């Protein structure tokens, strides 16, 4: 998984190198190559070029990827905003309207979903069915973008730049990853593979002028960018769930209780007079105690200790993923995370549901959150694959 290769002491566990596949696709005139960049990659790729951890290179990455030959450059942060709109809607359905079990558990980390299906399958019904941002961006490119741009979706070749080796496995996780009739994503490159390609190309990456992403899958909110840090998905989801449940804007936009590198973080948010109890765990060992607390409450017939749980397999979240530049420690993790929080503060839009391109995709294509079309394209399912009998 992403976590293993991040921490392999000898560096023996590495990603399957797919840079040659991507070079070949970029040269293939029958393919229209498009690309997306995950939240955390923007604050880590600079390390491969001698810059300090946390340096935000978003706009240079847009520029570099166009020079490599990609016809459109999208941002996974856009799809992180869509994931939040779907997931926050699921949460409000379960919490406010009592339709579905609590706690709701996040599912955008494929190492975690794999682990859950093998070891914690008694929580399958608690999982958010929302696909990860990578998959959502892919399927929206091959449907919505293809229609708007007037291109043949069978020619679109989607490359994802991800922090993570487990994201390579996610592409074929279930048949829903081909919901449009085409693979949501064709190839995943890790941050390290991207750095390798940039060096092979001879482009003077750091000297490039800034550029903008391609609309209509490019704009992002501050909530979308903090997905790359432990606690970020929870913080983003709470910003939008609060609005959906109350019709108001959450004043304290920064949920500091779920920030930082403590293995388990807890917080409480008041929504319409009801207390929402949240927990965030990163590193799979830390999730055990959170799930055990929920199981004990279930057995005793007591109320759930948490309503919403975020889990990321890698310590620190995706900024510490197995495809990131080597040599991560907590100091480096905190610097990478600081780069994402700064990006959040710098955005004029900090709530996923206010991202204008997200508003547009629902207006023009998906209808509303959790609509039939949203379910068909943006959601998935899980299957118990027990390693031992519970
Ligand atoms: Fe991949 Fe992020 Fe999960 Fe790590 S936390 S395995 S980088 S998705």
TrEMBL record:
Keywords recorded for this protein, A-Z: 4Fe-4S, Iron, Iron-sulfur, Metal-binding, Repeat
Entry annotated with the keyword Metal-binding: yes
Entry GO MF terms: 4 iron, 4 sulfur cluster binding; ferredoxin hydrogenase activity; iron ion binding
Keyword Repeat: yes
4Fe-4S ferredoxin-type domain mapped to chain residues: 1-18
Protein name: Hydrogenase, Fe-only
Organism from which the protein derives: Opitutus terrae (strain DSM 11246 / JCM 15787 / PB90-1)
Residues of the full protein shown: 192 to 581 of 581
């Amino acid at each position: 998984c992403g976590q293993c290769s991040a921490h392999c002491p000898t560096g023996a566990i590495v990603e399957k190198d797919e840079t040659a596949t991507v070079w070949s696709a970029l040269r293939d005139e029958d393919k229209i190559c498009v690309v997306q960049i995950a939240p955390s990659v923007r604050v880590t790729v600079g390390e491969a070029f001698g810059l300090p951890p946390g340096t935000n290179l978003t706009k240079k990455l847009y520029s570099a990827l166009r020079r490599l030959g990609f016809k459109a450059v999208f941002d996974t942060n856009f799809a992180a905003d869509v994931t939040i709109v779907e997931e926050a809607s699921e949460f409000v359905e379960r919490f406010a309207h009592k339709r579905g079990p609590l706690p709701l558990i996040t599912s955008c980390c494929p190492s975690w979903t794999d682990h859950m299906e093998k070891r914690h399958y008694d929580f399958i019904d608690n999982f958010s069915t929302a696909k990860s941002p990578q998959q959502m961006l892919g399927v929206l490119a091959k449907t919505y973008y293809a229609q708007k741009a007037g291109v043949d979706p069978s020619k679109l070749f989607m490359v994802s730049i991800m922090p993570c080796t487990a994201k390579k496995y996610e592409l074929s996780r279930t048949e829903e990853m081909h919901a449009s009739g085409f693979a949501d994503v064709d190839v995943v490159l890790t941050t390290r593979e991207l750095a390798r390609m940039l060096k092979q190309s001879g482009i003077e990456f750091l000297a490039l002028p800034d550029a903008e992403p391609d609309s209509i899958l490019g704009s992002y909110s501050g909530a979308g960018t903090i997905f790359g840090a432990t606690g970020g998905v929870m913080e983003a989801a709470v910003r939008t769930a609060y609005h959906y449940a109350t019709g108001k804007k959450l004043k304290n936009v920064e949920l500091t209780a779920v920030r930082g590198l403590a293995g388990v973080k807890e917080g409480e948010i008041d929504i319409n007079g009801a207390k929402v109890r949240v927990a965030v765990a990163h590193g799979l060992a830390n999730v055990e105690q959170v799930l055990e607390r929920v199981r004990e409450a279930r057995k005793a017939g007591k109320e759930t200790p948490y309503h919403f749980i975020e889990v990321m397999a890698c310590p620190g979240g995706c900024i510490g993923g197995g495809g990131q530049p080597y040599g991560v420690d907590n100091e480096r993790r905190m610097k990478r995370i600081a780069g994402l929080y700064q990006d959040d503060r710098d955005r004029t839009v900090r709530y996923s549901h206010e991202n204008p391109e997200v508003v547009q995709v629902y207006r023009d294509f998906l209808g509303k959150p959790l609509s039939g079309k949203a379910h068909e394209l943006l959601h998935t399912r899980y299957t118990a694959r027990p390693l031992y009998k519970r």
